[in-house]
């Protein structure tokens, strides 16, 4: 293979207006982080209440479960196109113009799309974690006079979150990886930046090695934060509680 | 004396399954009532109806003058005044013992933290576990967990305490430490309704025994009478099984 390695390419000026290729690719990484943080925030803010709703009977529960099925079963790429090409057409005129003309329109719509897609997945995980908590916990809390909201707030959700930390970690990593789909609607996130760099400079290996390392760093930070959360929330005491319960003499 | 707990012709179904059939009974203040009967006879369901954890389809339940079936009744407020102790303890594993005892005091009764902790420590002392205030449930034995659960129920200053087989998930050597606490409570005049097959406890402190079978209250008798001369054939059969088991 006759590949011409040139790591100093990162300090060459980039044609897109960034001072150097390094800055260009770092800007892409920053955009990826912004997408990931806001998508994750939407996913939690929507997914957690939805996970609770999905356990209810009646209209509320059916609506939440329908949401999950809809968003989980349509490919993310297709959803992204719907948000970007179709949704603005349905908006009132003023808003439509704003969305179409704003340079951040694709970023905002893409982030919303990824957020609501991930919300459906978080909803399922929250629902499963809540269902894994013995019914007796709910009864004990209610028997003490706690109201449903208080029962979720002080008993069920804190326990569910401890159970959820490992799955949430991989969910956040998925969000970072899925954020690359947003390049299809023209957002210069990390993968798009690497591709642009490769097209301008022809240094394909350097571009994508840099992108890979940056993805690894972002995910490393996520794992570190989640491990800290696991330690802080005293998951160990909880795990051993589950063990004792299983080992106990329960009928 | 007016009954503290009064149920009349209570019926309940789970789908097609008729689990409670026109149950009528009452409990006066300070009384200790033991409920026994074969597995699946509806004992747990019955006491869960007494604090509205389960809904009934027919009949009335009145607790401390409040009609549980009335749409105006604030069930959470009522529940906070009735203690409940479960077979599997149901302590909150993510909270330490002290926090288990103060959670509902502060969030439901709106007691100040200091006051709630003082009440909690008094009760932990009473069940002999003040040294465990900062332990987590997982670090306690089954018997200790159940004593904490009893203290948690008492922390709300309930008008009555319901027990659903409080000793049947325990290893034999831990049963007596829990029963001792229950006997002490009974002697202090706590109103208690206990589903249990601990006939020693029933003989010692129960004022009445309710025997259930197939969703019906088959017998409701003073405890002495129930053990000496059970009226129904079903109760006699049940007792001979239980007593043979206990003796063996
Ligand atoms: N949530 C439920 N849904 C449907 N059926 C139920 C439910 N809970 C209990 N049952 C049924 O209702 C009947 C009474 O149950 P219950 O738990 O009250 O009996 P029990 O007397 O407490 O029995 P055990 O001694 O085994 O605890 C049983 O046939 C049981 O299978
Ligand atoms: Mg039962």
Furnish the topology, listing elements before pairings.
The complex is a heterodimer of chains A (about 250) and B (about 250).
Chain A: H1 21-53, H2 58-73, H3 76-90, H4 93-101, H5 105-132, H6 135-143, H7 148-178, H8 190-201, H9 204-232, H10 235-247
Chain B: E1 3-14, E2 17-28, E3 32-36, H1 43-50, E4 58-63, E5 66-67, H2 75-79, E6 82-85, H3 97-107, H4 113-126, H5 142-154, E7 160-164, H6 172-187, E8 192-195, H7 199-205, E9 208-213, E10 216-222, H8 223-228, H9 233-247
Bound molecules: adenosine-5'-triphosphate and magnesium ion (MG).
What does this molecule look like?
The complex is a heterodimer of chains A (251) and B (248). Chain A is mostly helical. Helix content of chain A is 78%, strand content 0%. Chain A has one domain: Orthogonal Bundle (MetI-like fold), CATH 1.10.3720. In chain A, helix 3 packs across helix 5. The radius of gyration of chain A is 22 Å and the shape is globular. Chain A starts with 20 loop residues before the first helix and ends with a helix. The longest helix of chain B has 16 residues. In chain B, the strands form two sheets. In chain B, strands 6-7-8-3-9-10 form a six-stranded mixed β-sheet, with helices on both faces. In chain B, strands 2-1-4-5 form a four-stranded antiparallel β-sheet, covered by helices on one side. Helices cover 38% and strands 25% of the residues of chain B. In chain B, 50% of the residues are buried. Bound molecules: adenosine-5'-triphosphate and magnesium ion.
């Amino acid at each position: 293979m006759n590949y011409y390695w040139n790591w100093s390419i990162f300090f060459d000026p980039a044609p897109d207006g960034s001072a150097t290729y390094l800055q260009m690719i770092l800007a892409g990484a920053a955009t990826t982080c912004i997408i990931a943080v806001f998508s994750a925030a939407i996913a939690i803010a929507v997914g957690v209440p939805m996970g609770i709703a999905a356990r209810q009977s009646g209209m509320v529960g059916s609506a939440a479960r329908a949401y999950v099925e809809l968003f989980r079963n349509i490919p993310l790429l297709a959803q992204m196109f719907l948000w970007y090409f179709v949704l603005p057409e349905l908006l009132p005129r003023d808003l439509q113009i704003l969305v179409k003309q704003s340079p951040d329109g694709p970023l905002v719509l893409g982030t919303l799309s990824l957020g609501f897609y991930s919300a459906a997945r978080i909803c399922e995980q929250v629902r499963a974690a809540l269902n894994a908590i013995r019914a007796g916990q709910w009864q004990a809390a209610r028997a003490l006079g706690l109201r449903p909201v208080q029962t979720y707030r002080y008993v069920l959700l804190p326990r569910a979150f401890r159970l959820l930390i490992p799955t949430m970690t991989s969910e956040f990593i998925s969000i970072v990886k899925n954020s690359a789909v947003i390049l299809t609607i023209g957002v210069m996130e990390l993968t798009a930046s690497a591709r642009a760099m490769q097209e301008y400079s022809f240094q394909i290996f350097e571009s994508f090695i840099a992108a890979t390392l940056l993805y690894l760093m972002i995910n490393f930070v996520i794992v570190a934060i989640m491990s800290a959360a696991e330690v802080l929330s005293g998951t160990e005491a909880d795990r051993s509680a589950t063990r004792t319960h299983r080992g106990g003499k329960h009928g | 004396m007016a009954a503290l707990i009064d149920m009349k012709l209570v019926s309940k179904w789970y789908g097609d399954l008729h689990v409670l059939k026109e149950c009528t009974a009452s409990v006066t203040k300070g009384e200790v009532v033991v409920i026994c009967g074969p597995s699946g006879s509806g004992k747990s369901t019955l006491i869960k109806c007494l604090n509205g954890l389960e809904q009934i389809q027919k009949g009335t339940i009145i607790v401390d003058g409040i009609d549980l079936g009335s749409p105006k009744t604030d069930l959470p407020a009522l529940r906070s005044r009735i203690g409940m102790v479960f077979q599997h303890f149901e302590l909150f594993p993510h909270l330490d013992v002290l926090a288990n005892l103060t959670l509902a005091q502060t969030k439901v009764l709106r007691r100040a933290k200091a006051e709630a902790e003082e009440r909690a420590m008094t009760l932990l002392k009473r069940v002999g576990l003040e040294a465990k205030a900062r332990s987590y449930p997982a670090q306690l034995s089954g018997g200790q967990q159940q004593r904490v659960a009893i203290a948690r129920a008492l922390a709300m200053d309930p008008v009555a305490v319901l027990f659903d087989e409080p000793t049947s998930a325990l290893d034999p050597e831990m049963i007596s430490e829990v029963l001792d606490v229950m006997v002490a409570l009974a002697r202090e005049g706590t109103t208690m309704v206990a589903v249990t097959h601990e006939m020693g406890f029933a003989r010692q402190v129960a004022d009445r025994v309710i025997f259930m079978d197939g969703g019906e209250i088959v017998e409701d008798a003073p405890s002495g009478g129930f053990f000496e001369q059970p009226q129904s054939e079903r109760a006699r059969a049940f007792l001979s099984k239980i007593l043979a088991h206990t003796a063996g």
